[in-house]
Amino acid sequence: MNESLHKLMEVEELTPETFVLHFERNGFEFSPGQYVVLRDPETGEGREYSIYSSIHDNRLSFLIREVEGGDFSRLLRHLKPDSEIAIEGPRGFFVLDEQVLSGHPVLFIATGTGISPFHSFVRSYPDLNYRVLHGVHFSDEAYGRDAFKPYRFCLCTSRVEAGEYFGRVTFYLKENPVDPKTICYLCGNSGMIEEVSGILENYGISPENIRSEVFF
């Protein structure tokens, strides 16, 4: 597996817990939707993160939430510019097929930082025929919202009425049927993916058109 060192260029603060790390790209090639392992070059400790940046960016970016009790996310949270991280990869097959790239309707469903691969998809391929459902607790967790066309994006907030829909993405889907011809990509926690998959299959969407990436 390929591994290379990359220097941190910038830490972009989003919320008190969430941030984006921007590294020098150094020719790193990937397909939107893939992930890497970020490693501490001194200890070898690492964790998997989806790539947040587009294939056109000159930086390699990762959306990260500091997890309570998570030593590695805390290490990343306190990285300083010019420090180095080892990046192993890319890995994974959560990528767009030719149908989607050719304009077939696609629905992206994410919770929390699971929006990362969809951010990479849309910034890499801005002409996709997509819709996005992003489930969060609060509106300030609409990470990277500016990358999505407003009429294609629906923020589902579960703690306050501050998005386009008040409630979980599962509640939204139960109230808003999905065309059975839609190809769906799901990224987030396992509970959401399991429940959403069931809802989509009940609408007649075939299992092979429900692609998922369990994020945490």
Automatic annotation (TrEMBL):
Spell out the InterPro entries in the cross-references. Answer: Cbr1-like_FAD-bd_dom, FAD-bd_FR_type, FNR_nucleotide-bd, MRET, OxRdtase_FAD/NAD-bd, Riboflavin_synthase-like_b-brl
Superkingdom, taxonomy of origin: Bacteria
Q: Which residues form the FAD-binding FR-type domain?
A: 1-97
Q: Which PROSITE patterns match?
A: FAD_FR (PS51384)
Q: Which Gene3D superfamilies match?
A: Nucleotide-binding domain of ferredoxin-NADP reductase (FNR) module, Translation factors
Supply the SUPFAM superfamilies for this chain.
Answer: Ferredoxin reductase-like, C-terminal NADP-linked domain (SSF52343), Riboflavin synthase domain-like (SSF63380)
Q: What's one Pfam family the UniProt record gives for this protein? A: FAD_binding_6
GO molecular-function term, one example from the UniProt record: oxidoreductase activity
Q: What is this protein called?
A: FAD-binding oxidoreductase
The organism that produces this protein has a lineage beginning with: Bacteria, Pseudomonadati, Bacteroidota, Bacteroidia, Marinilabiliales
